[in-house]
Specification:
Blueprint lengths: L4 H7 L5 H32 L5 H48 L12 H14 L1 H7 L1 H18 L3 H49 L1 H6 L3 H48 L8 H11 L4 H8 L1 H15 L20 E8 L9 E8 L4 E5 L6 H8 L7 E6 L2 E2 L5 H7 E5 L9 H6 L7 H10 L3 H6 L17 H15 L3 E5 L7 H14 L4 E6 L10 E6 L2 E3 L1
Parallel strand pairs: 3-8, 3-9, 6-7, 7-8
Antiparallel strand pairs: 1-2, 1-4, 4-5, 9-10
Helix pairs in contact: 1-12, 2-3, 2-6, 2-10, 3-4, 4-7, 4-12, 5-11, 6-7, 6-10, 7-9, 7-11, 7-12, 9-10, 9-11, 16-18, 18-19
Length: about 550
C-alpha cells in the first residue's frame, strides 16, 4: 500500500467520487460556456462591423445570451456541488479520525498536549479542503478544456492551436511547480507553528489563574506573540508567492493572446482574429486553481502526515479475536499482578493479589503515586498487563471485549468530567436510553435530586464547562448519580472524595455506601474515612498490596 500521506488522503475521497465527477463536469461546462461566450461575442462584434443581414447575426445573438446565462448557472452549480462534496468529505474525515484515535485513549494520547490534538482534529483536517477543492476536480477540468480549445483552434490553423497549447502547458505545469517549490517549506512550517500556537493558547487559557498568581503573564504573552509573529511570517511568504503566481498567470494569459493573435494574423480570416484571441484568454480561468493547489501542497502534506502519524499508532489494548460472553457472575480476582509502563522503567507495583466477591466492599489505602489509579486503568483495559492474572467471572480479563468489561465496572474518580450541557444529559451519559424517571431515581440515591429541583431550570440547568457552575460536592453527587444510573455490578471509587472538605467527603461517602448495598465496591483512597464499614482493607506499601 502506498504510504504517501497525500495519496492516502485522496483515497479517502473515493466514496465521494460521484460528487467530484459532477463537479468536474460542471467545471468543464462553466469554462466551456465562458470560452463560447467570449468567442461568440468577438465574432458577433467583428461580423457586425461588416454590416451583414441581421438574420445572419441572429444565431450568434441567441448564443451570446445563452452562454452568458449558462456560465453563471454552471458556475453556481459547480461551486455548490464541489463545496458540498468537500464539506461532507471533511466531516467524514473528522469522524474517521476520531474513530481512529478513540481506541488509543488514554494510553497513546497521554503524551500529547490537548491543544495539539485539537489542532489536528480541526485545523489540519480543515486545511485539506484546499486539496480537495483545488487539486482533484480542477486539474481534470483544465485538461478537458485545454483539449477542447486545442481542437477548436486547430479548426482554424494547427500552428495557432500549437501556440495556445504551449502557453496552456506553461500555465498548467510550470506555474504550479513554481508555486509548489516556493511554498513547500513555508506551508509545512505554517502547519507546525499553527499547531504550537494552538497548543500554547490552550495551555495558557487552562492555566490562566496560576499564571496570574505567579506573575507569569508577560512571559506567556511574549511566547504567544513570538509564535503569532512566526505564523504571520509564514503566511506572508505564502501570500507573496500567491501574488506572484497570479501575476505570472495573468502574464501568460496576455502573452498567449498576443502570441495566438500574431500567429493567426497571416493565416486566419480577419473576422475570426478576435474570436481566437478572446477564446484563448477565457480558457486560462481553468488554470488559476492549479497554482493555488500547488501553493498549499506543502501544508496539505504536513497536515496529512500529522493526522496519519497519530491515526496509524497501534492501540495499547486490543479485543480478542473470539471474545468470551459477558460475565454472568462478575467475581474479581487478581493474582501476582505486576505492571510497568515501559520496558526498562521501574515497576509501578509487583505481585498484587486481591479477591472481590459479589457484594463485598474492599478498600485499598495508598499515598498519591502509589499506583492506585494505574490499577483502576488496568481493570478498565486502558492499559495492558504482562505479568500475573486478572480473572473476572472466572475468565481472564483479556478474554472479554473492552466494551463488555466497562459494562461491569462503574468508576467514579476525584475529577469526573462534566460536559458543558444540562444536568440531565450529564447523568444520562451513563445510559443513553434512560428515562427521566430513572434519572431522578439515580439522583435521589445520590441525594442531589432536591438540589436540582431548587435550581430555576431544574434538570435542564447547564453545568458550565467541566461543571464550573456547581460546587465540588455537587459535581461529585452528579457524578455519583451517573454511576448509579449505569447500575454496574462492581463500583470503583478512585479517590472520589479527595478534593472535598471533610464534612462533604463524609456525606458523599455515606451516600455511596447506602446506595450501593448488595453491589461490589472497590475503594481506592489515601484517607481512612468510614473504612470501618467495609469488609477488608489493604495497603499499598513499596509497590506491594498488603492486608
Amino acid at each position: 500500500m502506498n504510504r504517501d500521506p497525500l495519496w492516502r488522503v485522496l483515497r479517502l475521497a473515493l466514496p465521494f467520487w460521484r460528487g467530484m465527477a459532477l463537479a468536474t463536469l460542471l467545471g468543464v461546462l462553466t469554462i466551456a460556456s465562458s470560452v463560447s461566450l467570449m468567442a461568440t461575442s468577438a465574432w458577433l462584434i467583428s461580423r457586425a462591423a461588416q454590416q451583414p443581414s441581421i438574420a445572419e447575426l441572429s444565431v450568434a445573438v441567441v448564443g451570446v445570451r445563452f452562454f452568458g446565462i449558462a456560465r453563471g448557472v454552471f458556475r453556481y452549480l459547480e461551486r455548490l456541488v464541489s463545496h458540498e462534496t468537500t464539506f461532507r468529505l471533511l466531516a467524514h474525515l473528522r469522524v474517521a479520525f476520531y474513530r481512529a484515535i478513540e481506541p488509543l485513549a488514554p494510553a497513546r494520547l497521554v503524551s500529547l498536549r490537548s491543544g495539539d490534538l485539537l489542532s489536528r482534529v480541526i485545523d489540519d483536517i480543515e486545511s485539506l479542503q484546499n486539496l480537495y477543492l483545488r487539486a482533484v476536480a480542477p486539474p481534470l477540468t483544465a485538461l478537458v478544456v485545454a483539449l477542447l480549445l486545442t481542437v477548436f483552434l486547430n479548426l482554424f490553423d494547427p500552428l495557432v492551436a500549437l501556440v495556445a497549447l504551449v502557453f496552456m502547458l506553461a500555465a498548467g505545469i510550470f506555474i504550479p511547480l513554481l508555486a509548489w517549490w516556493g511554498n513547500a517549506r513555508a506551508g509545512r512550517e505554517r502547519v507546525a507553528v499553527r499547531a504550537e500556537l494552538n497548543a500554547t493558547l490552550v495551555d495558557y487559557i487552562q492555566g490562566m489563574a496560576e499564571t496570574l498568581v505567579y506573575g507569569q503573564t508577560p512571559a506567556q504573552v511574549g511566547k504567544i506573540a513570538a509564535l503569532s509573529q512566526g505564523l504571520a511570517t509564514q503566511e506572508t511568504r505564502i501570500a507573496r508567492f500567491d501574488a506572484l503566481q497570479v501575476a505570472l498567470t495573468v502574464f501568460l494569459t496576455n502573452g498567449a493572446a498576443l502570441a495566438v493573435l500574431a500567429a493567426a494574423v497571416p493565416r486566419i480570416d480577419g473576422v475570426y482574429l478576435a474570436t481566437v484571441a478572446l477564446a484563448t484568454i477565457a480558457v486560462f480561468e481553468a488554470f488559476l486553481p492549479l497554482a493555488q493547489a500547488a501553493a498549499h501542497l506543502g501544508a496539505n502534506t504536513q497536515a496529512s502526515r500529522r493526522l496519519f502519524a497519530l491515526a496509524d499508532l497501534p492501540p495499547i489494548v486490543t479485543d480478542p479475536v473470539s471474545p468470551a460472553p459477558f460475565p454472568e457472575h462478575p467475581a474479581l480476582e487478581i493474582r501476582e499482578l505486576s505492571f510497568r509502563y515501559a520496558a526498562g522503567e521501574p515497576p509501578v507495583f509487583e505481585a498484587v493479589a486481591l479477591a472481590l466477591q459479589p457484594g463485598e466492599r474492599v478498600a485499598i489505602l495508598g499515598e498519591s503515586g502509589a499506583g492506585k489509579s494505574t490499577l483502576v486503568n488496568i481493570l478498565l483495559r486502558f492499559w495492558d498487563y504482562e505479568t500475573g492474572d486478572i480473572l473476572l467471572g472466572g475468565r481472564d480479563l483479556r478474554d472479554y471485549r473492552q466494551a463488555d468489561i466497562r459494562e461491569v465496572f462503574g468508576v467514579m474518580t476525584q475529577r469526573t468530567h462534566l460536559f458543558n450541557t444540562t444536568i440531565r444529559e450529564n447523568i444520562r451519559i451513563a445510559r443513553t436510553g434512560a428515562t427521566q424517571e430513572a434519572i431522578e431515581v439515580a439522583a435521589r440515591q445520590a441525594q442531589i435530586h432536591d438540589f436540582i429541583l431548587s435550581l430555576p431550570e431544574g434538570y435542564d440547568t447547564f453545568v458550565g464547562e467541566d461543571g464550573s457552575q456547581l460546587s465540588g460536592g455537587e459535581r461529585q453527587r452528579v457524578a455519583l448519580a451517573r454511576v448509579l444510573l449505569k447500575n454496574t455490578p462492581i463500583l470503583i471509587l478512585d479517590e472520589a472524595t479527595a478534593n472535598l472538605d471533610p464534612i462533604t467527603e463524609r456525606s458523599v461517602l455515606e451516600t455511596i455506601l447506602q446506595s450501593t448495598v448488595g453491589r461490589s465496591l472497590l475503594i481506592f483512597t489515601h484517607r481512612r474515612v468510614l473504612l470501618d464499614q467495609v469488609d477488608r482493607v489493604y495497603h499499598i506499601h513499596q509497590r506491594r498490596l498488603l492486608p
